[in-house]
Write a structure and sequence with these properties.
Layout: E1 9-12, H1 15-24, E2 31-34, E3 47-53, H2 63-72, E4 73-84, H3 89-99, H4 113-122, E5 125-133, H5 139-150, H6 163-176, E6 188-195
Parallel strand pairs: 1-2, 3-4
Antiparallel strand pairs: 4-6, 5-6
Length: 196
């Protein structure tokens, strides 16, 4: 967005996260703002687009957060929400690890396209597009990476294994993503919605 002339702001409650972002950025391409997403330090109707990925599922109640999203968006502004999907092996494993106190991400919930769309409509948004994606790299590689990390062995976040086989698999995933029934097999789902 910034490269296209937009003004981009990144809000985070963690000063450490903002410092990490600052170290990765060139110049002042993004405004880094320390704050709580449930009580944003922005005026009403400040943004054309609000995007968050992997955040909504960490709130015990999604209402204050999504109400803030609605407040800071301009009329007909776009909200992009990306969350874990309910019907996935990842969700089963996640809840087992949460129960055992071993989950790295703290407490989490998950959504279906229908439940997320209903929630957004209730809060003054109209869904205009849904999407989903599988885990890249795959969930089994991520598990393996976590296990190796316990023994001090670091594996790359995104391995360059199997070359053209991996590329062919990703291409197949992209074609399958267009089939609505397969939305129940993806790791994450998302909705693009308009403020009404």
């Amino acid at each position: 967005m910034q490269a296209l002339g937009g003004n981009v702001s990144l809000l985070d409650y963690s000063e450490e996260s903002l410092c990490l972002m600052r170290s990765l950025m060139r110049d002042d391409e993004v405004k880094l703002i320390l704050g709580d997403a449930r009580n944003c330090p922005f005026e009403d109707s400040s943004f054309d687009i609000v995007f968050h990925q992997g955040l909504l599922e960490h709130f015990a109640s999604p209402f204050p957060f999504l109400k803030e999203n609605h407040r800071i968006l301009k009329r007909s502004g776009i909200l992009v929400v990306d969350v874990p999907q309910t019907f996935h092996l990842y969700t089963i494993m996640k809840h087992m690890l949460i129960t055992l106190g071993l989950w790295f991400g703290g407490w989490e919930r998950q959504f279906t396209i229908a439940s997320l769309a209903k929630l957004l409509r209730r809060l003054g948004f109209e869904p205009i597009h849904v999407y989903g994606d599988w885990s890249r790299p795959g969930i089994f590689y991520k598990i393996l990476r976590q296990l190796f990390a316990k023994f001090g062995v670091g594996l790359p976040m995104y391995p360059k294994y199997f070359g053209s086989v991996t590329e062919a698999f990703y291409n197949l995933q992209n074609r399958l993503r267009r089939k609505k029934i397969l939305m129940y097999t993806v790791l994450s789902i998302g909705i693009i919605a308009r403020k009404i």
